[in-house]
């Protein structure tokens, strides 16, 4: 994949170019110091991926994107974490904080490869009504999601989330020692999560199967599952049957 690096700092561009040498399938097609130079490079090079700083002389990275009719896949590179939510609102693939870590860069490039190699969907037949809204994009356990609860924000790999649990009109997320609340339903999350990894244990909870520490028989032929780091989850009767069928040889 061809990449364009846009950053007013020559040192930052040099460092990113050096990190990208570890990925043989990535070619740095060009560099730009500000938005106007980036527009010229985008027209000439038509890169697959744009590594974009936010604070630059003249226009910001967001203003550059707003001025483009079409844009390549965008990975933001910045020293500031307060623009993360806005970055995902403009459909950025990822948001890398400086100094950029190689493992985070690898994860961002994996997302770019997945987008670039995804098959082009066939045209829908003309007959029939259009759906009210597009189907949610499925996520893998290696995807990183942005979570905001009040004034606190996190970037969390789905693989690190062990439990989603209804809490009032919100869903509570369990990862590390944190328990933020998000305005999403379990039904919405089920559509987006990989059902080979995330299992709907009951009406209230979705568990990450890779965090299961132990399983024991429970009342009325149900199961009780203990997750590493807690808590224990009681699987409903119907879902206990499905759990056995799904995971038995």
From TrEMBL:
Record key words, sorted: DNA-binding, Phosphoprotein
Start and end residues of each HTH LytTR-type domain: 147-249
Coiled-coil regions, chain positions: none
Domain of life assignment: Bacteria
InterPro entries, per the entry: CheY-like_superfamily, LytR-like, LytTR_DNA-bd_dom, Sig_transdc_resp-reg_receiver
Recorded GO MF terms: DNA binding; phosphorelay response regulator activity
Domain named Response regulatory: residues: 2-113
Nucleotide-binding recorded as keyword: no
Name the record gives this protein: DNA-binding response regulator
Organism, as annotated: Hymenobacter perfusus
Phylogenetic lineage: Bacteria, Pseudomonadati, Bacteroidota, Cytophagia, Cytophagales
